[in-house]
Amino acid sequence: MSSTQFNKGPSYGLSAEVKNRLLSKYDPQKEAELRTWIEGLTGLSIGPDFQKGLKDGTILCTLMNKLQPGSVPKINRSMQNWHQLENLSNFIKAMVSYGMNPVDLFEANDLFESGNMTQVQVSLLALAGKVRPREGQPPAQSHTARWM
Q: Which parts form a coiled-coil structure per UniProt (predicted)?
């Protein structure tokens, strides 16, 4: 049995229960706050669908470069899946170098395949909470304090 069979088709039994429990923890209000924070910091529009807007990783990589300049040296603009997954992987590595706790991180497929958007939300909220005004940055960038 190949491992890809576990990721395809409808969920039944325990996996459906787990998936439904994760979905029930997703907070649309937090999504709206994250959208405002990310768009405000990057100057980029996520669009109407949060998952699809972030899926290619370009906005997230731009976000990390705003928080920690040069943390993602190359952002792929290609629409090829492997380039998008590479962007997500580079974003996750940049979050680690920014000092994020590994338990707060999401995996690329959580966002890319919409597998666990609750974990994506948890990760982004943790990142927003970690942002502190740094020397030389204007106080306007510290508007994430409401998540701390």
A: none
The closest alpha carbon to 21, from 110, 126, 119, 127, belongs to: 119
Nearest to 109 by CA among 94, 127, 92, 126: 92
Asked if residue 111 has pLDDT above 60, the reply is yes
Instruction: Please say whether the beta carbons of 130 and 99 come within 8 A.
Output: yes
Q: Burial level of 104, CB count in 10 A (0-12/13-18/19+)?
A: middle
In this model, does residue 94 exceed pLDDT 50?
yes
**Arch. (CATH architecture) of 28-130:** Orthogonal Bundle (1.10)
Residue 7 confidence (pLDDT): 47
Q: What is the pTM of this model?
A: 0.77
